[in-house]
Amino acid sequence: MSDLASRLIALTPRLRRHARGLVRDASRADDLLQDTLERAWRYRWRFQLRPRLGPIGQIGQIGVKDESDGLFAWLLTIMHRLHLNAVRRPDRLELSEVPPDIPVDDDPGLRRDLLRALATLPEDQRAVLLLVGLEQFAYKEAADVLGVPVGTVMSRLSRARERMRVALEGAPIASGVFSAPGDGGSAMLHRVK
C-alpha cells in the first residue's frame, strides 16, 4: 500500500465526521466521503506537498498538526467543492435530520441541543464553525479550504458562534452589550486563533 493510500485511510474518520457535520445525514455524508476520496485518488498527482513547518517556522521540523503538509486541507477543499456542487443541484433535497453519532459529550441532552443548534446554521457559517471549532484550523487554513478571504471566515465564524449561543441560551444579547463575568449573564465566546 502506498504512503498516500495509508494516509487517506488514516484521515477517513476525521473526514467522515466533517462530512456528517456538513450534510447532516449519515448516508449522504458517506457518499460525500466516498466521492472525496475517489476524486483525491484520481487526481493525486495534483497534490503538492508543502514543507512541514515547526512551531517557529523551521523547515524540516514536524509541526503541531499532522496535516501540516496540506493533505487534510486539500481533502477538505475537495469535500467542500463537491458539497457545494451537490447543494447547487436542484435535484437534491435538504434533509433536516441531524446524525446522532457525532461525538460531542457524554450528556445526551447537550449533544442533542448542540446538533440542533448546528443544524440551524446556514451552510457557509456551519462550514467555518466545523473547520475552526472542530478541526482546529487556523483562519488562513479555513479560508484556503473554503476559497474565501480570511475576513470572511472571521465574520462567518462570529455570526455562527452568536447563532449557536442564541440557540443554546435563548434570548440574544443586544448589539454591543456584553455581560461581565459573574453577573449572571452568558459567558462570552472567545477567539481561539
Which keywords apply here?
193 residues, 56% helix, mainly alpha, 2 domains, 0% strand, Arc Repressor Mutant, subunit A, single chain
Note down, in words, how this protein is organized.
This protein has 193 residues and is an all-alpha fold. It folds into 2 domains: 1-101, no CATH class; 104-176 and 185-193, Orthogonal Bundle (Arc Repressor Mutant, subunit A), CATH 1.10.10. Helices cover 56% and strands 0% of the residues. The protein contains 7 helices and no strands. It has helices at residues 3-23, 26-42, 71-88, 108-120, 123-134, 139-146, 150-169. It is globular. The N and C termini lie far apart (36 Å). The model is unreliable at 54-66, 92-102 and 173-187 (pLDDT under 50). This is RNA polymerase sigma factor. Residues 112-164 form the RNA polymerase sigma factor 70 region 4 type domain. InterPro entries: PhyR_sigma2 (IPR053866), RNA_pol_sigma-70-like (IPR039425), RNA_pol_sigma-70_dom (IPR014284), RNA_pol_sigma70_r4_t2 (IPR013249), RNA_pol_sigma_r2 (IPR013325), RNA_pol_sigma_r3/r4-like (IPR013324), WH-like_DNA-bd_sf (IPR036388).
